Batch of 2 targets.
Target 1
Amino acid sequence: SFELTQPPSVSVSPGQTARITCSGDELGEKYVAWYQQKPGQSPVVVIHQDNKRPSGIPERFSGSNSGTTATLTISGTQAMDDGDYYCQAWESSTVVFGGGTKLTVL
Amino acid sequence: QVQLQESGTGLVKTSGTLSLICAVSGVSVNNNNWWSWVRQPPGKGLEWIGEIYRGGKTNYNPSLKTRVTISMDMSKNQFSLRLTSVTAADTAVYFCASLAPSPQYFFDSWGQGTLVTVSS
């Protein structure tokens, strides 16, 4: 079955660039979305279709996808970017989520 | 603006059936989106349960397929989840969500989530 693998945690200093990866077989041939989730809240999409940013999402969020790895990049990370991030793709009529990455801004 | 609201029993007995409803407002469930259920056990990640499309076509997570039924009521603009033979492992926050259609396939709207606890 198709699986997406994310690092459990990523740490970054305020103002620096955070990169969260998501790996899966031939992932570059599928569209990937990224969600941010804060404690007690529903997930919010920050990137869809690999690199499209919904309205209201800051420009510091960007995405790329090639080969077997998709990457969410947060430039000039701010304290408010702290939270859990999940990648998601669609494969053979099923939705697949990565295991999630806890981003700590310290 | 699309809004989704989950409702249902918050406490289900072991081996019983979990039933939830998602009321949709701001858009018809008869549109092009897939209407989905996603769950999140306490302290864990997101797990897709399944989805339904207008006309009743469904797709389910293979790991839950034998226990899950998702249905739609267009007259009430809502869709439902039924999960049978539940165990403690089914304790989770259950979200309903709207999945944008092909080729986008991303969740563009979410409900607030509802906690369902399975206990004997």
Note: Chain B has a mean pLDDT of 96.
Target 2
Amino acid sequence: EAQVTQNPRYLITVTGKKLTVTCSQNMNHEYMSWYRQDPGLGLRQIYYSMNVEVTDKGDVPEGYKVSRKEKRNFPLILESPSPNQTSLYFCASSSLERYNEQFFGPGTRLTVL
Amino acid sequence: AQTVTQSQPEMSVQEAETVTLSCTYDTSESDYYLFWYKQPPSRQMILVIRQEAYKQQNATENRFSVNFQKAAKSFSLKISDSQLGDAAMYFCAYRQMEYGNKLVFGAGTILRVKS
């Protein structure tokens, strides 16, 4: 089954404790991105990647890092989480040929205390 | 920068009735794509319908249709014969041609369906 998976689905952590949210897709997609969803703001792009070893900032990259060492994986790293990073996070992927078909992961609910 | 505005934070509709969700956007591009996504309580993002800006014909998917007014930069979603399963958050989104495949989302509209 074609899908984007994220782990964990729920996470409660404390300020300053490094964490990683994993994202994996099994569709051989070149394009992957991370969004955060906040009430009243919709989804906003954090980072994106056009292919392996190619990443770039989205609209709200501060406090986040990403890497793209393999085509299928695109982890989101919070080196020192803060309460303002409490949010719902989505990973998405698409092929460059069928770029209007973005597949979203199930979301990760992160709470930073 | 492109922006997407959904001016209705919440809407209600009676089952079997029709409801229209509004969306306006701002862009200087001439070619782009517009989307409506549904987010049910499960939080999954589900593509409802998409419209290509260079196509004048409004997109339709079963009970879902759009009214795309390019000059007015308006992209509303009409849901006919509303069902209880249509209750969800609906997001309007714009796909930028620059900066990769980024989607710019509106703030969302919560749709409640009354039985």
Note: The mean pLDDT of chain B is 94.
